[in-house]
Structure formats: C-alpha cells, structure tokens
Amino acid sequence: MNKVVLMGRLTRDPEVRYTQTNNTLVANFSLAVNRRFTREGDTQTADFINIIAWSKTGEFVSKYFKKGQQVGVIGRIQTRSWDDQSGQKRYATEVVAEEVYFADSKRNNDDSDNFDNTFGADSSMDGSQGSDTSDFEVSSGDDLPF
Fold first, then answer.
1. From the centroid of its chain, how far is CA 91?
2. Domain containing 57: what range?
3. What is the CATH classification number for the domain harbouring 134?
4. What is the pLDDT at residue 43?
5. Each residue's pLDDT tens digit in the chain (146 positions)?
6. Distance of alpha carbon 67 from alpha carbon 134, whole angstroms
7. In this structure, are residues 95 and 75 in contact, taking their beta carbons and an 8 Å threshold?
8. What is the 3-state secondary structure (H, E, C) of the chain?
9. CB burial readout 64-100, b (16+ within 10 A) else e
10. Which among 105, 45, 50 has a CA at the least distance from the CA of 77?
11. What is the pLDDT of residue 135?
12. Total domain count for the chain?
C-alpha cells in the first residue's frame, strides 16, 4: 500500500501550470513538516516535501492555499526520472495529493469570510475525477475531537 498523510505549512504559494497534451491543471507546492522527535538540546527540524495536485484538487489548492498556511495532505509517494539538457539522469520523489484539507483554525484563516471551510477532493494522475469525494464541514476549531 502506498499512502502518505502529512500536515505542515506551505513554504510558498502554489505554482500552477497546464499539461501540454490535454491542458490539465497541475499545482505544485512544498510543505514544511516538523519532525516528531528532536534530540535533547536540538531545535525543531522540518522536512520539506514537494506536493503535486492534479485537476480539481489542484484547482482547489491554487484558489485557497497560501504561503504559511497549515494544511493536511493525503496522497501517495511517486518517484520519477528524466534526462536533463546535459544528458544527466535526474530523479524526483514527491507526493501526489489525493485529498487536501485546511489545518488552521477558522479564526486564523485569512479567507474565512470568503470560504466556509467545506473541503475534500479526489484526483488521479491522469486528471480524471474519482467518484469518491470526502466532503464535510468544520464549523469551529472547538468542535474538533482532537
């Protein structure tokens, strides 16, 4: 099984582009995810994870996600390779987002007046929409069970 669950802060605003073959939207962004444990005397460290969101999920990300915002991402790890312009083999490991969520409380969300925090999306690599969508509404941070 290939499933990843991350929570972190966006290191930059999502970048949007479209594929050349079928004009599918692709959003790229990076999450700073704090490591769970630190050694005594060390400062908190973070990993910087590259995320790709396709189609409707990418559209959602590009519209509502901003630098510094805390978000949750559920997806899968993908590795790929290519030859660069000088013929060198290059590799990339990234997370393909299948579901994305707000993780900040509504009070801290700058877009809270324009968006009701209803969220959840599903996508696939080829840009087709899945039939499973996970939609629910959070009315306030105090209602969360954790």
1. 20
2. 4-143
3. 2.40.50.140
4. 80
5. 999 999 999 999 999 999 999 999 999 999 999 988 777 777 878 999 999 999 999 999 999 999 999 999 999 999 999 999 999 999 999 999 999 999 987 655 454 444 444 345 443 333 333 434 344 444 444 554 44
6. 24
7. yes
8. CCCEEEEEEECCCCEEEECCCCCCEEEEEEEEEECCCCCCCCCCCEEEEEEEEEHHHHHHHHHHCCCCCEEEEEEEEEEEEEECCCCCEEEEEEEEEEEEEECCCHHHCCCCCCCCCEECCCCCCCCCCCCCCCCEECCCHHHCCC
9. bbeeebbbbbbbeeeeeeeeeeeeeeeeeebbbbbbb
10. 50
11. 42
12. 1
Joined tokens for residue 35 = 């490591």
